[in-house]
Amino acid sequence: MTRVLLLGGTGDALQIARQLAPRDVYSLAGLGKVPDDLPCAVRVGGFGGSEGLQHYIEQEAIGLVIDATHPYAAQISANAVGAARSARVPCWALRRPAWQPQAGDDWRMVDNWNELTAALAPFRRPLFTLGREPLGHLDEIPAHQFWFVRCLDSHAGTPRARILAARGPFTLEGERALFALQGFDALVSKNSGGSATEAKLEVARERGMPVVMLRRPLLPAVDREFASAADLLAALRPSD
């Protein structure tokens, strides 16, 4: 039987990992909670780039690499494809569809941090939902702004920034209450896709709030690409 290496860290990846066999490996970067109830082995930490990942694939007799990392984990995705090709094993990827703007949305599309902060210049109380990245810029907050940063990490914040440590999925009712309580005037988001964090976009739409949306990076081609965990699992275990 083919031994699978699943590169994860997302809710979709965890769904796949719960269906793997004991011989398979679920790999995590180690930034979030490490599950301890999976049927497969769990590996935490990096591989040392594409060459290190290739060495691991060959050493551990991996027969299939599955990239189920975050859509913005472009370097990991590139490493996965490069290592799999060098090791001559197939690479599959779970790439959930991006969100699409709807009637009433006010999306301001940006490609990098500089464009993002420029787009935020007119606003005073933005909510960042980019993960850890804004934590490295807390000393750059403009004098007229107070930032709210939602991420997995607990952080003391600063006099002009509050860190909201939280893990999705987030409900529509919960997002409505949060937005009303804190008085955000702009939302900053990655176009992650999926339903776990989509409620924030609906609340922004309801409130007529601008969304500064970071475009997805380009990802390398893989041997097979899937839009959902269910589709990937059906291909992985067709006889089950």
Features:
single chain, 240 residues, alpha/beta, Rossmann fold, 2 domains, 21% strand
What does this entry look like structurally?
With 240 residues, this protein is an alpha/beta fold. The chain folds into two domains: 113 residues, Rossmann fold (3-Layer(aba) Sandwich), CATH 3.40.50; 108 residues, NAD(P)-binding Rossmann-like Domain (Rossmann fold), CATH 3.40.50. Helix content is 28%, strand content 21%. It contains seven helices and twelve strands. The strands form two sheets. The chain has a six-stranded parallel β-sheet, with helices on both faces. Strand 4, helix 3 and strand 5 form a beta-alpha-beta unit. Helix 1 runs parallel beside helix 7, helix 2 crosses helix 3 and helix 5 crosses helix 6. The chain starts with a strand and ends with a helix. The model has no long low-confidence stretch (mean pLDDT 94).
Biggest pleated sheet: 6 strands, parallel
Strand order of the largest sheet: 3-2-1-4-5-12
Task: Indicate the CATH class of the largest domain.
Answer: Alpha Beta
Q: How many structural domains in the coordinates?
A: 2
| Structural class based on helices, strands and sheet pairing | alpha/beta
- What is the CATH-assigned architecture of the largest domain? 3-Layer(aba) Sandwich
Gyration radius from CA atoms, angstroms: 19 Å
Oligomer state of the chains in this structure: single chain
Helix and strand element order: EHEEHEHEEHEEEHEHEEH
CATH T-level topology of the largest domain: Rossmann fold
Measure the end-to-end span. 14 Å
Strand tally: 12
Please tell me what the overall shape is. Answer: elongated
Low-pLDDT runs of 5+ residues are none
Count helical runs: 7
Write down the overall mean pLDDT.
Answer: 94
Q: How much strand content do the residues show?
A: 15-25%
Helicity level: 25-40%
